Amino acid sequence: MSSSSAPITNNQVEHEHIRSSLQVEKLEANLFRSKMLWLPGGSKGVFGGQVISQALVSATQCVDKTYGLHSMHCYFLLGASPDTPVVYHVEVLRRGKSYLTCMVKAIQHGNNIFILLCSFHKSEPWQITRQWQMPIVPTPEQCADVEDVHLRNSETPGLNPTIKQILQRVAEERRKSPVAMKQCLDHEITADGHVRYMYWMKARDIRKYPAHYQKCILAYISDLYLIATVPKMLNLDLHAKGPGALGMTSTLDHVIQFYDNDFDCGDWMLYVMENPVDGLGRGLARGQIFTREGKLIAITTQEGVVREDVRPTTRL
C-alpha cells in the first residue's frame, strides 16, 4: 500500500515480499510514486506485472471501497527504467451508480510509458453464476518447484555453458521471488487439439489482505510466464540465432477480468495458459486462474510482439 517515506534506491532485485513490490508513495491527491522497481535478468525494462499492480494500487486508493475492481486493460508504451521512480497519475473518468471507471498514466522522464483503464463495480452476488470447470491436474503438493525444474535441466549432460548459466540464474530469481511457482504440466493437449500450459502459483508468506488488494497481487502474478507460451508454441529457440530462433518478445497489452471478490493469493492458484493465434509479428496468450478448490476467479489476455530471428546465419 502507500507510505510517506522517500523512494528507496533500486537494487534491480525482485523483493522477497510481494507487499514491497506493490508499494507506492502518495504524493498528492490522485498522484503516486513507485518505491522500488525490479528488472528481471535478461530484460530491457521493469517487470510489467509490477507496473500493472502499482497502477492498480494507486487507482484503488482513489475509489470508494463500495466499488470493487472487476476489469482492467492496459498498454505498455515504453520500457521502464529501474533507476528512476515511476509516477502514477489517476483520473476518475466516470462515477455511476453501479460502475466507476479510472484511467492511470504511468510517467517516467516526462514520458507516458504505460496507460491503464480499470473499471470498478458494486457487486451483484444475487445474479446467476456459471463457469468453465478447472482441468483435472496434479495437486500443488505433487508438483515440482519451477526453480528445481530449471536446476535439473541445467545439469543436462553436454548442455551449452551459456544456457546452463541462464537456467541457473532464472532458478535463483525464482527461488528469491515473492511468488512461488510449481510446474503443474509442461503441456497438455486437449480433446480438440489445443495445447495448454499449467502452473500452480501463490504469493509467499502473506497475511489475508482485503479483496481490493488481493486483486492487485493477482495482477502482479498474472504477468508471469503468460506471453512465454507464444514462442513455446511456435518452437522458437530462445538461445539460438537465425531462422527458428526467437528474435524478440515484448508485451503490448494486458487484460484481466475478475469474477470473484473473496480469494486468497496466499493459497495455491492454478494458472492455465493457451496460445490461440500468432501472426504478423504478434502473438496472443490467454489465461484462466482457478483457486485450488476449482473456482474460476480471473481471465487474462495478453498480446505481445513475438518475432523470429529471420537474419541468415553466417557460416565461417
UniProtKB/TrEMBL annotation:
UniProt keyword list: Hydrolase, Isomerase
Domain Acyl-CoA thioesterase-like C-terminal: residue ranges: 188-306
Domain Acyl-CoA thioesterase-like N-terminal HotDog, chain residue ranges per copy: 42-121
UniProt record, GO biological process: acyl-CoA metabolic process; fatty acid catabolic process
GO function term, MF aspect, one: isomerase activity
Top-rank lineage group of the source organism: Eukaryota
GO terms for cellular component: peroxisomal matrix
Any Pfam family matching the protein: 4HBT_3C
The family this protein is said to belong to: Belongs to the C/M/P thioester hydrolase family.
Protein name per Swiss-Prot or TrEMBL: Thioesterase/thiol ester dehydrase-isomerase
Species of the source: Cylindrobasidium torrendii FP15055 ss-10
